[in-house]
Amino acid sequence: MISSSCAGLCVALITLTVLYFYDHIVRLPAYRSMLVYGLLSMLLGAMACALASFALVVPAWSSMASLSFTGGSIVLSSPFAAGAWGYCTNISMDTSAGTYFGQCVLYQTNSVMGHGLNDPVTVALTCLCDLHEDSSSYASLQAASSLSPSVFKTFTHGACGANAWLTLALVKLLIALTAVSVLAQLTAVCARRRRHIIAHTTLFHLTVTTLAIVSCVACLSAWAIQSPKGVPYGAAYDWIGFALALTLAVLACGFKFRLEALREVAFSPVPEQTRPSVVKDDDPFGTSQTPYKEDNEPPHTV
């Protein structure tokens, strides 16, 4: 996770640095500059939302083997892999061939799914958290998981506790916040010269993005507690780490966009008040320094 976060952060920082120096060397107009930063913010936000969505679906937050990318396919072969919603055993997946073999057990939902197993584990239709530790079904799942009894027991307690619900809720919250962030940035870009809309939408965008960063860090921390001991972090966990780096870049782009937008859409100058000219009947007491002159009186020449 650390390597993935660092890689994502380095890519984001390099992109922002190049864009920053290009902006200052070429000296783009304020509107074009805010348009560039706005589009980049939306692109990075959409990428973070997609990564979080993939991480929610793929049960590879912790895995005994890593995902490999061969050409345009994703290949995974692992005896055990755990995700935010459940864990799978005897996994053999190849997206290019359209094949998936393995058995998945959900933490809270009453379902045990298996497909293409050579040695399937037969248990009653139930969820992991409903099984008693002394039951035969629990022992069968533990034997098929390739984990030691003590590690599987600790993992089960974590998967059935409040921490598991927290991990699942946080990754869903991350998806929602990044999606809302993209929509808020899109609204600000389309508003262009409407200062009132830009000021509020950019502030809302920065707030939502900050909450996404907090939820991302909390999600990574929650899974670090829930992850089975001795099983390395998988690809889905790395995707959340990469999404963290992207949301940090989104925050930087959003802040730069707000500065450029407020500089472009400046307040209209308020005209200074001028002293009205004195005309007939405006100074009945003769206190004005402006000499009285009739409307039809010709100008005096000296």
Summed up:
The protein has 302 residues and is of the alpha+beta class.
Question: How would you characterize this protein structure?
Answer:
Keywords: Membrane, Transmembrane, Transmembrane helix. Residues 273-302 are annotated as: Disordered. Residues 292-302 have a biased composition (Basic and acidic residues). Residues 111-125 have low confidence and may be disordered. This protein is an alpha+beta fold. It is built from seven helices and six strands. Helices cover 55% and strands 12% of the residues. Strands 1, 2, 3, 4, 5 and 6 form a six-stranded antiparallel beta sheet that branches. The protein starts with a helix and ends in a 38-residue tail after the last helix. It has one domain.
Keywords:
302 residues, alpha+beta, six-stranded antiparallel beta sheet, 7 helices, 55% helix, 12% strand, transmembrane helix, transmembrane, Transmembrane protein
